Amino acid sequence: MKQLHGNLIGLKPNQIASLERLYRRRVPPDELITAELAGRMVEISREIRRQIGVLIDRHGAVEYVIIGDEKGIFIPELSDYPLGRRLLRGLRYIHTHLKGESFSEDDLTDLALLRFDLMAILQIHPDDRRVAIQTASLTPTAGAAHPYRVEASEPLATFRMDFGSSVSHLERELEKAVATEAREVAASGERAILISVTKESREEAEDSLEELKELARTAGVAVLDVVIQRPRQFNPRYLMGEGKMREVVIRALQLGATILIFDQELSPAQVRSISEMTELKVIDRSQLILDIFARRATSLDGKVQVELAQLKYILPRLTGRGVQMSRLMGGIGGRGPGETKLETDRRRIRDRIAKLERELEELSRGRQQRRQKRVRAGLPIVSIVGYTNAGKSTLLNALTRSHVFTENLLFATLDTSTRRLRFPREREVIITDTVGFIRSLPKSLMGAFKATLEELQDADLLLHLVDCTNPRVEEQIHQVETILEELDLGDKQRLMVFNKVDILPELKKKSPLGFMKVRQLSRRFNAITVSATNPSSLESLLQEMERRFWPSSPQS
């Protein structure tokens, strides 16, 4: 026998037995509820003075019997009926109201959050034997004022409804209403709502979300909508207010989203609180970046660094692990070399972290030995640094005629690539490509990938490559300079290089002010302009590098 759920305290054995017998009732698939089941629920509810609810599947079987108090019902976790990628849960929810009242706000919120096929209340009038029924269902239009539609009450005795046809029609309408972006994503792809909760200006929040959009695109996530909240103070459980958080979740479900991505870093407690409200996966910017790193890591160094960062991120989130933790793992935010390790207990994860840190130290020693050999060889070392997706790997390929992987995505390069660049008169320099920088990179991630940036310590010249066509070019320059200072590289000789100048004519047409700003920045930083996709544009850069390393030699 299936168990009863909810408030059983104070019930007599015969009352409990009557409630348990509700599980034996069957409802024809085309009916919402039978008169017999509705009548029995009303009788028991009157007797025990508590609301009673049943959840019925599409085959007509009663799957849950729930007992509340006089004012409401707390719906248990529906782990046997996960929502997944479906737009409806496959359960209808019918419960009693003892004072003949209509749907409460909590009722309708449950309908929207839990995505029931339909919700109905049996309205028991306390003054007489009359019973009415009222139904509510989800609204198929994503932009509707309310995510649900409430019908007028009808006497239970005369109520008729072709439930099967109604649900089939609603599902078809919901499918049509799902955002175009969601329909275009492959079945295995994620569909996200991006959320920023910040005290910064709206303009700053929008800029940061634009970058988060690019990160999502890099991770293969379709962005369905963005939400910006600027509260006076942060809610310790949800960042934003609980009511607003519910609205966001309902909106996400309406659009067919599968994941919520926060621009701000969430604490383990906040992830748990939000996950208790919704079955959608909940991650933050840090975890999204980790996922991208996991996709991009190809060398042993990179794989070890990714796994170490993932385990350090997930360890504090294992406390009190419940269903929300299984939603946190796997897919976006949970892939990579450490994927299976995330399901081990805390002790084994700590052991794994210690082992990986030892491996990283050993790899670091190997890198140091290789760097010392290069230094002893007396060859100048040039490191290309810059914001992510500035074109660093493309420039390395153009300068050295190499084939380092490039793509128009953030963090396309994670592993350091080193090549030789030959100049006239048998002179050479070592040139390295590094992982791109990004705004608000958490210190935990910076620490995990500091080994990748060790190469910069030995550089004789830093080429600071800038995507001069990016609307946030000045901010990106500042971010890179700030990170270099944090890495104690502020005194390193550097050369500013503005990339993608081939796109400037298009920028001049679209945004004359933006074009003027680029020209001013170029003069201010005494930048050399290139197009990494056009090798013939690199002559001035090569001449300047040659001048800096061999100033007394005539330039070729």
TrEMBL record:
- Ranges in a coiled coil: 195-222, 339-373
Recorded hits in InterPro entries, A to Z, give: G_HFLX_dom, GTP-bd, GTP-bd_M, GTPase_HflX, GTPase_HflX_N, GTPase_HflX_N_sf, P-loop_NTPase
List, alphabetically, the Gene3D superfamilies matched: 6.10.250.2860, GTPase HflX, N-terminal domain (3.40.50.11060), P-loop containing nucleotide triphosphate hydrolases (3.40.50.300)
SUPFAM superfamilies assigned to the protein according to its UniProt record, in alphabetical order? P-loop containing nucleoside triphosphate hydrolases
Any Gene Ontology CC annotation: cytoplasm
The UniProt entry, under NCBIfam families, shows: GTP_HflX
The entry describes its oligomerization and partners as: Monomer. Associates with the 50S ribosomal subunit.
Designated name of the protein: GTPase HflX
Q: Which gene encodes it?
A: hflX
